[in-house]
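Q: Hi! First time doing this. I have a protein sequence and I read that you can turn it into a structure. Is that right? Here it is:
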Amino acid sequence: MTTAPSHAYARADEHRSEGARPWLALLVFAVAVGIAAGLGGAAAGSAGSEYASLEQPPFAPPSWLFGPVWTVLYVGIAVAGWLSWRAAGVDAAIAWWVVQLVLNAAWTPIFFGAGEYGWALVEIGFLLVAVVATIVVVRRRSRLGAWLLVPYLVWVGFASVLNASIWWLNR
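A: Yes, that's right. Below is the predicted 3D structure, encoded as structure tokens:
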């Protein structure tokens, strides 16, 4: 049985950890997350007033809470992707990271931009699955990266219940 020489893997890891390059990669992950957040924000220009106009369940948080929560979550998402990349390069974990980020960016235009609460519920279901898959594959590369995604999973789970409740109450 032949295997690849261990130095081949070591060289790839060293390349990702040399000098300023890892910090530039972190910037790339942060910019990708920023773009996703910006797309959602652009589609939700009147989200605060629309959210306030909806019939909401008693557990619905105030609209001012979403900005700070998402800021913290987006930092965790960026760092988790970066940690996974540092450990293994571009692989299935990064593919799942991109999938969840695209689904994340798509939810706000569906919910707030189009006012399609039922379709947003379907979409957030896919997002929830993608976040779980991302955590599973990132965990194989970086336990810290996986743990950084857990608050995101909890929030998306909560947001799914909130989305379902808003859809039900505003049909």
